[in-house]
Every structure is written in C-alpha cells, then in structure tokens.
User: Fold these one by one.
Assistant:
Number 1:
Amino acid sequence: MEKGITRRDILKLSGMTLGGMAIGVATGTAVTASASDCTQQSLDPMTNNDYIERLPTYCPGTETLADNEIRISFLGTSFLPRLAQECNSVFIEVGGGKNGEALDQFIFDCGSGVVAKYNAMGIPMRKMDKIFLTHLHGDHMSDLTHIYLFGPAQDRKTPLYVWGQSPSYLTDPTDTSYTYDNDGVKVFCQKFRDMLRWHTESFSFLPTSYKNWTPPTQTDWGLPAPPMPIVPTIGPPDPTNTDGYGVGGYSLVPIELDWTKKGDQTDDNVAYNNPTTGVKITHFPMIHARKGSIGYKLEWKGMSVIFTGDTRPSYELIKQASGVTVLIHEMVVPPEVWAAKNMGYRTPAEAYADSGFQQALTVAKAVQTSSHTPQGALGYMLSQIQPAPRLAVATHFQATDDTIKSAFKSIRNHYPQGDVVIAGDLMVLNVTPTSITKRKAVVNNYAWYPVAELSSALAAPKYQDGQGNMAPTAQIDTTDVIPSGADTYDDSGY
Ligand SMILES: [Zn+2]
Ligand SMILES: [Zn+2]
C-alpha cells in the first residue's frame, strides 16, 4: 500500500511543526498532498474498517425478535469520539414483547455522541429509561445529559433509572471532609439534576408526565434497595413533594450498587432481577483508574452477556465469564501505537525519530497501567475462561484495518481458536441458544427522533394556563417579540 500523506506531513508542510525541520518537499505541494490524502481514504488501512463494512445488512425496524432471542446493538465503540465510532454504548433487547418487539431493554453506558446513533437506529426515548453505568468517565456517560433532558420532550414521560457505582471511599489525604470520596452515582445524579435545572424548567411548558402512572417497586425489578429517594421530580402536582410535583420524565432515580460485591459469598450483587421479563443483571468489580468501576452480566433464558466497561485484565473477569454467551470486553492498542497516533504519526517506527515520542510513550503507558487491557491480555484471558465464551467482542478500541490486524495477531497468540470480533458502531448481534449472527445496521444519517408513542393520558405541564393547557410564554418576556402577521412575516414555507 502506498504510504499516504499524513496529518503530520501536512503540519510540516504548513510550517507548524517544531524546529522548522527540513522535509525535502516544496511548500507548493501542500494543497495537492492534502487532496490526495482525502481521495485515498477508502483504501487506507488507517481510515477504513473493512470488516465492519462487509458485514451483512441489518435494517432497523423491519424485524421481529423471537421469544428466545437477544439483540445487542453497538451504538458507540471508542474511548475517543470520532465520526465512525462514538464513545461507548451498548443497547441490549430481549425478545417476547408484543408484536415481536422487545420484552425488556437496557442501555449499558452512554458516552458522547451516541444519541445520534440511537435515533438513527429508530430506538425511541421510552425504551431508553434503564441505564447501567460501568463507571463515571465521560466517554461512558456524557450523553446521559441528552437522554435525560430530551426524553420527556419525546415519549419518556416516566423517570430515568440510572444504575451505577457506590462511592469509592478512597481516602484523599488532602480532603479531610472526604468530599472527593463521596463520588457514587447517587451524588452524581443529585448534582446532575441541580446543574440542569434551567433546561428542565424551560422545557416544562410541555407535558412531561402521565396522569396515572405507578412506578415499579423494588420487588417488580428485584432491585438491591428501594428505588428511593427519587431525585427531584416534575410531574403532576403533588404538594407533599418538596419540588411540588410528582413522578415524571424529569425524575431521576439513581440505583447505587456496592462496587465491592462479587456474588461469590452470598447472592448480593444483583442490580436487576425482573420476575416478569426473566432478565437478571448482576455486577462485579473491575479495575480501572480509581476504585468503583463495575462490570455487568445480563442473564436470560440460559444465555448471558457480559459488558465490562473499562478494566485492566482481571482474574475476577475470568471467573465471571465462565460459560458466558457473549463477552463484550474493552481492549487498547499497544502504548507505542497510542503514542504515535496521538502525535499524528502513522506508525511507531516513524514516531521514534521525534524527540517528543518518549514522553508521549510514558504517558500512554501510564494510562494503560492505570486503566486498560492490552490486546495480548485479552487473548490470554479468553484462553483462561472455561468454558470459553461463544463469542468475544473487543470494544473501546479504535478499529481500523491496521489496528485490527495487529490486535488479532496478539489475541491469536494466546487464543488461536474461538469466535472473536472487534466492534464498530452500528454492529448488531442476534443471539439465540443455537446461533449468533453479526450484521451492520444501514441507517438514515439524517434521521429525526423516532415516532413518539404514549402509553397513557398526559398530565398537565408544570407551566400551564390554569386549565391544564400548555403555557409556552410563561417563562419569557414577550414585550419585544415580533409577531407574525400581515405587517411582519409570512411563515408558510412548506
Ligand atoms: Zn473508557
Ligand atoms: Zn474509563
């Protein structure tokens, strides 16, 4: 393959690199080089993912789910946001609902950019109400903001349930009040709610709740603790509530899980256990950057799916993954590749000549030492899991032809056989007791929100006219508003 002109080369050509090093290329070729870089992208192993592109097509919204079928959709598969791979999110549905729809569904992590992918897949907000966070890094929870804030304007008129870690309770010697240790999902949700007050109030001229709706109880969902308190609430008027409103779309319900639990002493690591749908979700500790990260295992009808979030290679994972159907595990490129890519080089060989490379490499190694699973380590763990997973999926990985090739080399050194794939956005797996199919969704890049479906009568909005109707101007000053009409503007543009 002909070597392409890199971003680094272009920087050099534009005189932006350090030291004004001689590059032996006339300045006048910069524009040509840039154009050439663009035109060869589809052939470039560093800007292409042939595996994902060649998967059979999945057409969202055209299929029913069998009552023994799990569908796993990858909406984000990278730690850094990029157009082909947003940050992390996996959507899992189990079959058996009415009209071939899912009976129950769950989001695992929701990093930045993933809502666009959910929209493209036609997944409505009402199905995005149960969110399991592995940890509170931005690449795993940034889009919680959009899901929370815009859900009630669509068809989630019920609370957003957020599972996540209990506080780390690490001792910070400089923090005598332990403020920085009370960092679990409950405090996170409380602060999150307060931070977003302007948005939630401003949207509350729209109906954001149902007239009659009964929240699931601890027993309904087999929750580890009663799902209270509901962090603040906007719904039908309820004078007994401190917010003055009852349960609705802007209710946020954190379900804090003791991150130390493994379920190996007593069955105390259950996050969700729904007797109606039969879905059970347990959690176990992962090793990542700071105490508190957890992984999840979903079990249903004899099948199981593990989602690790981020972790260093872990003996606990090997135990938890015994006989798992689908193991979704993170993986990182070697630190040399990480450092070279961060510096704009195509390969470590090119980067070694740069005086800054050793420093970049030191940083990359430190990140990996604190947090992640090298390619070879994933292969080693797979070789140790007995019985082996029916399918292993590596994710959180910048998946292009060059990195995939290198990863498989490392994985296969330890795990020569066994089904392994590297995830890309919009990859969809259909799992039954006897088969696993792998496809890629073909979607509309310009999709709107999916069509809203309401399950009951709406309650009056918070900002209303006294008769229960929306009062859209209740929070603005209309004095300076230009009115429509014969003297001003005609808006009939369709
Ligand atoms: Zn991450
Ligand atoms: Zn992380």
Note: Confidence is low (pLDDT under 50) at residues 1-34.
Number 2:
Amino acid sequence: MAEAVALHDLRSEIRGWLEENCPETMRRPGQILSGGEKEPIENPDSRVWLERCAERGYTVANWPREYGGAGFSMDEFLVLMQEMRRINARIPLGGMGVSMIGPTLLEYGTEEQKRTHLTRIANGEVRWCQGYSEPGSGSDLASLQTRAVDEGDHFVVNGSKIWTTLAHYGDWMFCLVRTDPQAPKHEGISFVLFPMDQVGVTVEPIKLLSGDSPFCQCFFDDVIAKKDDLIGELNQGWTVGKRLLQHERSGITSLAGAEDYYAPRERPISELAKDYVGEKNGNIGDTELRDDVVRLAMNTRAFLLAQRRAVEEARGGNTPGAATSLFKLYGADLDKESRELRLRILGHQALGWEGHGFTSEEITATRGWLGSKASSIAGGTNEVQLNIIAKRVLGLPD
Ligand SMILES: Cc1cc2nc3c(=O)[nH]c(=O)nc-3n(C[C@H](O)[C@H](O)[C@H](O)COP(=O)(O)OP(=O)(O)OC[C@H]3O[C@@H](n4cnc5c(N)ncnc54)[C@H](O)[C@@H]3O)c2cc1C
C-alpha cells in the first residue's frame, strides 16, 4: 500500500517536471543523441532535453545515483517511461554507453572505473563504439586476433576491427583483444577500453549500397590502452565480453521492458493500414490484412509481456543471462515481419528511396524494411542464437 502511494506521488512529481522541462519539439519522434559531440545535432533542443534529464538522473534512471542515475527500481523506472510516453517524449540519450558498456561496468567495473566512466556516460559526454568483430572473426568471435601486449602500466594494441557501428563518432571503444596467444582461444582474451582520439587509431567508413556509412573498419597501430581500463581480470575478457553481448541483445529487442512505453518512431500499423487500404466500420477494410495486423499485434504484446517477466525474474530487473538469446532471435523475426507488413500496406508507395513522389513516412518505411534485414545478424546471427539456446538454455550436448 505504502509502495503504491509512493509510486503515485512519484508519478505526479515526474508528470509536473516533464510538463515544465520537456521542450515541445522533443515531444515527437526524431534524432536521439548517443553522447559525445561528433555527431551533428539536428535540433539544439535535443541537447537541452538531454542536459535537463541528466541533471535528475533520468538518462539512466535505473542506475545508482552515485553513477549519474536516479536509483529507480524497475517499477519507478516504468513510471518514468509511462509518463514520457504520455507526452510522446523521445528518449533523451541512447547509444552503446547507456545500453551496453554502462550495464557491463556496473557488474564488472572496479569502483574507480565506475566513477570514471559511468557518470560521463550518464551525462552524455562520451560516445562509445564496439570493437568486437574482425575481418576473420564474426560468429566465431573467440578466434579474434587483435593483439594487446603488456607494457607495464598499459597495453599496446595492434590489429583491426570491422563493422564497427558509427566508429567515426566514437570517443571511446570497448574492445576485445588477445593478451595470451598461447592459451586456448577463449582463455587468452581481455576486455579493454581506450580513447579513439589518439595516434595509431585509423577509422575508415565502409560505404554501403544506400550511400550511407554506418559501419567502419578500425585499424590499430601501437594504440595505448591503460591498465586502469582493463575490465575484469587479465585473460578473462571472454566472460565480460559475453555479458556485454547479452546487454546488447536485450537492447536490440528492447528487453529493458520499456519498449511499449517509449514514444514510437512510426505510427501504428493499424492506422497506416486504414489510411492506405481503407476502412470498413472503423476497422481495416481488407479482412485478410486485418487478420495479419491483429496477429502481429498479439504476438508483439505476448512478446513484450514475456520479456517483462524474464527481466523481473532476472535479479531484480537486470538483463537475463543466456535466455536473452531467445528474445534476440524472436525479436529479430518479429521486427522483420512488421517491416514486411508496412511495405505490403504501402504497395507501390514503398518503392521510393528519396524524392518528391514519396512522403517521409513512406521513405522511412522502405529504409526501415531494408535495415531490418540486419536485425538477424547484428549482435550475433540467428543461427548463433539458436546454438546458444541449444547449449546454454536447453543444456543439449555440444
Ligand atoms: C547492423 C550491424 C551492426 C553491427 N555493429 C557491430 C559493431 O558495432 N561492432 C562489432 O564488433 N560488430 C558489429 N557487427 C558485426 C556483427 O557482430 C557480425 O556481422 C556478426 O557477428 C556475424 O559475423 P560475420 O558477419 O562475420 O558472419 P559469419 O560469422 O561469417 O557468418 C556467416 C554466416 O554463417 C553462419 N554461421 C557462422 N557460424 C555458424 C555456426 N557455428 N553455426 C551455424 N551457422 C553459422 C552465420 O549465421 C551467417 O549466416 C554489426 C553487424 C550488423 C549487421
């Protein structure tokens, strides 16, 4: 009872604060900042919104206060999300700091590492990128060859990472490196952090067919990673790296349990269908399409509820362990299914890539559909998730 009253009071407080502090232009979909200063900002209000939220710990509300969070429990966090959703507020801060390296540092970082890095993430000061995949190591990540040699108070890193998302905006990289080439492959890896703006780091964008370059290849030539920034034990980086992947996978499918509270980036499929295909008695006019839209909505709802249950069962609102792969697998398929459906609804209006003949909603849908092809590859392919589920969740023999 007392808890319910406290949540009610918190809700009123948050509602009042949001009304006063969320800029009008942040109450609709748009650019979400990921930290640092390298990415061009489309609207200065994004920065204002980020700073105001950071001041109250709302960028990472479920982190402890001493590291820049608001110390919220899962229920309190959901109240914040619900209130943000009520006014359509966009997330003040996203990116790999908040969703990947931050939660990993909370579990594996020393007190000093937490104090150094977490607050800067929470304030949006630093943008992170992920140095995992290499030209010869993707699914078989543990075969990675980027070498780090112990030089006393620092490591010297040489090698290359590929498919590094938006590394050209990155200020720091979390990176898996080989520190013992003689050891069995999983036992000679360490997890290090280093700044990208240093001599020896070269970042080359990889041009895609679309003309965009969200991916980069990074080259390291005698790059310095300080020993202070070794996360976990030397040669035990595989354990830390795997845990980070669970956070990544849970982020890809919004396993934080808050997906249905954030302001959506696109309008609901049912509305789109009524607009493009027509209405009958207030419903989608085409009955076959209506069935498919309803089936997708039910599957999405069931998926979100199953996610929430798993998150609540896992150590008080944390990312679950290997079971995260179940959600990554199904979430990727669901994402593709919903993108396909949007395309089907738009018909020939989904043929546009740019230009005046197409609305920005149509272009977003087409690009989103192409982008969704990557959801079963990023963060580990569907086949790799199936392997993890078989071995680590179901306990089947190797
Ligand atoms: C959108 C996106 C963003 C990414 N961002 C980053 C990033 O920021 N940092 C980073 O380090 N990496 C990033 N990656 C890379 C990603 O982690 C790899 O693409 C992924 O792990 C697969 O590796 P690969 O591309 O080398 O494919 P491969 O490992 O060569 O796999 C090729 C095919 O073989 C299959 N296969 C491989 N091994 C097995 C097996 N044992 N059993 C069954 N099938 C198997 C795979 O499922 C796949 O279909 C990103 C990828 C994408 C798509």
Note: Residues 255-263 have pLDDT under 50 and may be disordered.
Number 3:
Amino acid sequence: MLQFLTFDLMNLFLGDPIRRRRALICSLGIICSPFLGLRAQAQPASESNSTPTWEQVISAYTALAEAHPDQAALREFGSSDVGRPLHLFTLGPDTAALRILVNNAIHPGEPCGVNASLQWATSLLSAPENLPPGVHIGIVPMYNIGGGLRRNCCTRANQNGPEEYGFRGNARNLDLNRDFIKCDSRNALSFNRMFSEFLPDVFVDTHTSNGADYPATLTLIATQPDKLGGPLGTWLEAEFTPMLYAGMSERGEDMVPYVNSVKATPDGGISDFLETPRYSTGYGALHHAIGFTTEAHMLKPFADRVGATLMFLEVLLETSLSQSEALRELKRAQHQAFLALDNAPVAWELDTNAIDALEFSGYEARYEWSAVTQERRLKYDRSAPYTKSIDHLHTFRPSRTAPVPNAYIVPQAWRHVIERLQANGVRHFEVPKDTVVLLEVARIEGHSPLGRPYEGHHYRKVETVNRSLEQVHLFAGDWVVPTDQAAARYLVETLSPEAVDAFMAWNFFDSTLQQKEYFSSYVFEETAEAMLKSNPGLKQEFESLRNEKQEGGATWSARQQLDWLYKRSDHFEQTPARYPVFSIPKNQPIPFYE
Ligand SMILES: [Zn+2]
C-alpha cells in the first residue's frame, strides 16, 4: 500500500491540477475508476482510518464534476459562518421524479458519511449504467465547515478513529443539528434555502453514535412516524423503514434502531428519538421529506463504519427507486391531509404505557469496582453477546395542538422571521395600505424560559395561549402568508407560538413579553378612584377580589391593587404578551386578495 500511496502522492504534488485532484480521491481510500486514468486499486476502504479535510473533499468533488460534466455538478449554495461557501454535489437529472439528499459532517467529529458519500458518488459515476435513471441525488460534502476546520485527534473521547477529524461545534460553537429553525448560523440559513429549492423526497443525515456497546455497526433514526403523521407516517413505519432493515440484512449488515436507552443499558429498553424541527430530519418533515439519521457505532473501526454507511446509502437508493411512485403519491396525500386539519399537533410526548417488544442483540452489562472513583462502574462484556426481547417504546402522542389558519399575518417589523420564511420559499403577498382589520390574536398566558443558555438562547416553553378576535393595525408591506402552499407545515410549526420549535420558543418575539409603560401610584390614585365611581361593576369585582384575598390570607399590596385597576384602564398598553403574528381563521376569507 505504501508504494501505491507514494504514486498517488507524486501525482498530488507534481502532476497537473486535475490529475492532482484525481490522485487525491484515490489517496483518500476511494476505489479509483479506470476512467480517471489511475489504477483501480487504491488503498481499500476497509483499511483506511482517515477522513478528508474540507479542502480535500471539495477538491475530490470538483474533480468528479469536471470528469462527468453531463451527470454531475458541484455548486455553492450560500455561505457558512467561516465565510467559506457551502457546497452541494448533484448527480443525475434535476427533472428526475425521485430526489434524495444526503447531509454530511453536521458533526465533523463523526465523518463516516463524508467518506461514504464520496465513495458512493465515485462508484455511481464510475460507469454510465451505475447511476440509475429517475433519481436526482444531492450530497452536502461537509456542512459544518467551521467545525471541520477545527481538526484534531481527540475531541471524540469515546470514538475509534479516524486519526483526525473536526469538532462538533461550528465557528460560533453552535450544534448545527439544533439550528435548523432558529438559523443562528449562516450555514443553517443557507441550508434552509438549498433544502426548499432542492425539495428532497428522502433525506439522510450521517452521524456516529455515543452511548452503549452492542454488536451492530449501524443504527438508524427514521423520522418519528407518529410525529410525521398522515399517510406518509403510516407508510414509513409499516412499509418503507422495514424494507431498509431487510435490505441491509440481505447484504449481511444487521442494522438496529438507534439505541436510545431508557435505563442505564439497552436491555432495560430503548425508545424512539423524537427529532423535533430543530433537528435535520425533523426540519425535513416540515417539507414532507422522510428523513433518516444514520448513527454508526463509535467503537467499530472507522472503515467498518464507512462501509456500513455506504451500504445504507446504496440500499436506500435501491429501495427509494422501487417505491418512487408510491412515495410521490403519498407525499401529495400528506400535504392534502395536512391542509385538511383544523388543528395540527405541534408538540409530542412519549407514551410510556405503549410498550412493544424488539429482538435486540447486545452485550451483557457487568458491574465492577472502579479503580478511579472507588464506586461501581459499568462494563459491556463482549464475550457474552445476547439476543433477547427488550422493551421498545416508539409511540408518541400530541401534547399540544394549534389551529391551522387560512393565513398568517407577519408584520414586517419581524424581519428575522421574514428572512427565515424567505429562505424556506414561503409564498406571500403584502398588505397594500395601512389599515385596521379584525384578526385572530393569540395571547401568551403561560410560558417558562430555560434558566441556562441552550444553543445561544433561553428556550421558552409556551404552555397556555388564548386566542380571540381583535382589531389590529397593519402597515403597507406587512406580510400576508396563506397556508394553502407547499410550506404549510413549516408555517404552522414555526408560527404557532405553542409549537415545540416555534420562533416564539427560540426567543424571536421575547420583546413582546415586556410591558413598556407604567404609572406612579400617587398620580394614579385619583384616576383609580374615578374608575370605581363611574363603573359599579368594576367596583364590585375589585372589592370582592380584595375580600377573597384578605379571607384567604393572601397579600394584595396597595401597588398591586392599583396595578389591577391600571390594567383595566384606558392607559394600559394592551400589548404585553400579545403574540405579534396574527391569523385569519380557516373559515374567514383572506383580506387584500385581489
Ligand atoms: Zn452526531
């Protein structure tokens, strides 16, 4: 192997630029095709323990695109937080009925998909018959470029290779696999734009696991079917995902569901992972893409992880092609089913009473005395493999729902929200002139922020929302967004304040929660007195409330009493906790429509 690598390295440093890139592909462990003019015997993938740098992987795809201009292209689709462009490599005609998108190195310390995708693309292009007709494939070579450039040997403490890899956080220390809705990173905003333009039917995000030890090399998170819902969710769970497991098994790789242990070890049961829209495949579900997160097992040799990830991509392509027609029809039905909803689920929770059995192969867990902590420690005994039935919790129920309106009104003041709607290809028209209209207004009654920063925010859970019709002042240029459009589900799950990954949850509207004007008690006394005199009903309500509090032993200070009256006076601003995105209910016509 050393001799061959020397040959490649000579090409790398001495040859012409294209030849240098071709040599680079080979030296990365890719099987080089004779078409590329190099011997088809590069270092076998099974022996490679390295992953390309950003420069190397982009050079490799550039070479592939140059060598196959009729079948492939490499293009930039926006910027990343380190200024370098994000790339998308595409194969096959843009007009193909089936569209598959693969995202790599969102966590650059987990790069098996980077290698696997490059091998896959190389193999698909190695002979004309290898790339099936009827599919358009997109590959993001390296999504988290900033993290990829922070290359090191060691930050994946529990991982077996490769020798060097990037870091999980991006250039702003964000986990990009939590950033798909809030888009704090330029990477995510660029990705939103690319995704809504590419519009995949099937989406894959490649990772490496953490956690327990067990024999399987590859584990899988499918878009959570109950959360996906509709005809697509049912079909995904009953038909499509089982075909992928069977396809892997037929090729000798027994893939298992992602091992999300309920207790300390997998034999205590595993549960589905709920990938809400902040995650890659959860975001994809908002555009009716079925998504898969591959999680290769961190303790298996790197080359085996690459091999299993590559095998999954091949099985997925084959299975998707065989189901292409069904997939298109179900996607259409999914959209129609969503539009027919009066209320859509916007948050989910695991049903801990719905327990299924799963045949699982694991290693027995042993406990020993730790030489370090002087306490009990866990060890998996690889000499004691087992296959047994374990609990599998995979039923999720909606925990909050929100109305699906006829349209949303997004005032132009919320430009950061509008920027994200634009990135998602949301269709809209503008309010033609300043006006006052009757709209559905949501008031945030109960909410709780997270006490510590999480991914650059104090995530806010909205528990109670009250909706009523109110007159609202709109300005020329405010956005009217009908829900009867492709991005309907994206709109409902980002603009409903109670949705688990709503813009509200990610603090885009926190300024609306604050009261701006107050009063001086000594000045307001006279006003309060006049209010009570002129409004006997108010007086009665006020006094009975005070009696109730006194009898219950609760304090109701003078300031609190005056504040109660102030909030019922004409002086109160009425807008604290008024959610600033308004709705036109489903049975109401959309104003301003020509
Ligand atoms: Zn990961």
Note: The first strand starts at residue 72 and ends at 79.
Number 4:
Amino acid sequence: MTCKAVFLDRDGVINRAIVVDGRPYAPRKFSEFRLMPGARAGLARLRKAGLGVVVVTNQPDVARKLIDPEDLDRMNRRLITELAVDAVKVCAHRQDEGCNCRKPRPGMLLDAAAELGIDLQRSYMVGDRWSDVEAGHAAGCYTLKIERGYANDRPARADAVVRTFAQAVNHIIHRERNYA
Ligand SMILES: [Mg+2]
Ligand SMILES: [Zn+2]
C-alpha cells in the first residue's frame, strides 16, 4: 500500500528557529524548543485529510558537538508523541561530510518513502529555506516554501510560496480536494 505524505522541515516550520542577524539556527537545548503557533492545528488538519506527516531535518550541530543528542531526541520524540508525526528523519552530518541525507539532497525523503511506502510524486515538501525546496524537488514532490526572508537564503523554485505554516496547510488541502 502506498500513501501520500507531507514532508516537513522542522526548525522554522514546526518549532521556532533561533534567528540571529537574520539567520535561522536550530534550538540547542530542549528548553529552547518551542512549537510555532498553529503547528499543532495544522498537523491535525493534514492528518485529517489522510496525509502522512514526516519531519526531515538537518542537524549539523550534532556532528559539531554543539547539541547533546539526548536533547535532540527529546525534541523529536515530542513531535511523535504530542503531534502524531509518523517519523522524524535527521541528518546529523556537517556539510563537508558529503552525505546523501543532508538537504538539499533528497536522501531523507527517499529513505522515508521506502520505509513507509510513500508515493513521492503525490507528496509534498514544506520548508522555510531553499535547501528544503531543492530536496523536495529532487525527490519529485510538490514543494511549498514558507518565505521568511532569511539573510542567508537563496532563490528556490518552489511550486508555491506562502507566509505561514497555516497557509501551507490550506494550500495543500485545497490542492488535494480539487486536483488530487
Ligand atoms: Mg528550517
Ligand atoms: Zn547526512
């Protein structure tokens, strides 16, 4: 059985990114991990529409030893237990390690699709940076960018650009009802 899913970037989409000088960073302590307003309701609406939900997140601070893996685990477990996310895929590598999972590469999406039976062509990727959009595009998904105007962002060829996670959810549900 194959299913459709929404792949979601984590920081800046589900939880607040720590923004310094216009650049987003991942929270490094569990106490800094705050859900975005509307994250819980938006995820519930996606589930109700029959879509799987998979979080795909780059966390190079693990390789840099700037975050305790236990804190990261607690954050990600919270997404599964409280928000009913189906799976959380983490790339814990630095950019110079050249792995296949670090976005903009699509490795995390491809792995999750193989494990969970997800039809990538009928699925979505939502993120707040160019690398999220590129990963989704490379995996064959419909891509949505939440535009936050980060200082270190780059142009991306998203299928849709929105301002908030709630708008991304509206767009997906509307598209599912009318075109899917
Ligand atoms: Mg992000
Ligand atoms: Zn990786």
Note: The domain at 5-178 is CATH 3.40.50.1000 (Rossmann fold).
